[in-house]
Design a protein that fits this description.
Elements: E1 16-21, H1 25-28, H2 33-53, E2 57-62, H3 76-84, E3 107-111, H4 122-128, E4 133-138, H5 141-154, E5 158-162, H6 171-181, E6 187-189, H7 191-200
Parallel strand pairs: 1-2, 1-4, 2-3, 4-5, 5-6
Helix pairs in contact: 2-7
């Protein structure tokens, strides 16, 4: 089987979008403080390069209305959010972290579930822009990243997951996902590798 290797990556910038997922104050704040700034800095580097290259930058955020009407008592993951009041629309914790704030021309997509495609118009936006390749990263790797990769792979998108711009509170989960699980459906790269790929602008190639 041919495997795409990071040193051979190049992107068709006219068909590629960048997804930054769940980089919100409440979610970034769940990580150890010493890990937050390095993660935000890497995300900032990717976003800067993407904007300079003219790639669409799409923010995926998870927010709920007042009273959390979207959360079923049967939803084990989100029930705790309803109890705590976190990620409610209009609260500081639900806002995008200021270190990676959206810029004019960026797109913000609000979701009510884990994956970026669930309960959103993301697919409509990508099809309207004729996108077939996604560079994506987010918090948590075991949440929005894994869920989005699974769905996007089933929709036949080419996928690059930027591992050092993803984070999970469980280090072993992070390792297994980025080393074993995600590579089955995506090319796992570093920030440095994806920045080089964006700069090549010559189309995505397969390693031989």
């Amino acid at each position: 089987m041919k495997v795409q290797t990071p040193d051979k990556l190049a992107l068709d910038n006219g068909r590629t979008a960048v997804l930054i997922m769940d980089y919100q104050n409440d979610i970034v704040g769940m990580l150890p403080e010493k890990e937050q700034m390095p993660l935000l800095e890497k995300a900032g580097v990717i976003l800067k390069e993407a904007r300079q290259a003219g790639l669409p930058v799409i923010y995926i955020v998870v927010r709920f209305r007042e009273g959390f009407p979207e959360i079923s008592p049967r939803n084990k993951l989100f029930s705790s959010l309803k109890e705590s009041g976190r990620l409610r629309e209009g609260t500081p914790g639900a806002e995008i972290h200021p270190k990676v704030a959206a810029q004019p021309g960026d797109i913000v997509v609000t979701k009510r579930r884990v994956g970026a495609f669930n309960s959103t118009d993301l697919e409509t936006i990508l099809r309207a822009k004729n996108i077939d390749t996604l560079v994506l990263f987010g918090i948590a790797t075991s949440g929005v990243v894994l869920s989005t990769v699974r769905r996007a792979a089933d929709m036949d998108y080419k996928l690059l997951v930027v591992s050092d711009a993803c984070a999970d509170r469980d280090k072993e989960v992070q390792r297994v996902l980025t080393d074993k699980i995600l590579p089955m459906q995506a090319t796992v790269v570093t920030t440095e590798e994806v920045v080089k790929a964006i700069g090549r602008k010559t189309g995505m190639r397969e390693g031989k």
